[in-house]
């Protein structure tokens, strides 16, 4: 996905956990962070406390959506996804992408991966990998129009 590209429709979920969200719910009110993760991804689990802290800190200013991207047959187990989501305090809506509908729409190949969209729904930042939360924070603050701390 190229920078400034519009957010794809949030369609094709095998299931939604913690509430369903549509693209139109996200556009026009505040920026959105969409993060891809997988139950079989150790880096994702290590990064989750940072994502949750981020979600809670920016609660009123940022939409946060999780996308579960299975990497193997074992990752398709919905009960396992629910268990890991609960274990790691993932309270935000989770798009379970067992058919890779959203993964393909985003042309995403990585977990964890982070996509920051502005309030008009245009991609402003992408990064992949477990680290880099400082960079993610900088980009989110820029999209929010906040000065750096």
UniProtKB/TrEMBL annotation:
- Record keywords, A-Z: Disulfide bond, Isomerase
* Superkingdom of origin: Bacteria
What Pfam families would the database entry show?
A: AhpC-TSA
Q: Name one GO molecular function term.
A: oxidoreductase activity
Q: InterPro entries this protein is in? A: AhpC/TSA, Thioredoxin-like_sf, Thioredoxin_domain, Thioredoxin_ResA/DsbE_sf
Per the database record, which ranges form the Thioredoxin domain? Answer: 1-145
Task: Indicate what this protein is called per its UniProt record.
Answer: Thiol-disulfide isomerase or thioredoxin
Q: Which organism is it from?
A: Gracilibacillus ureilyticus
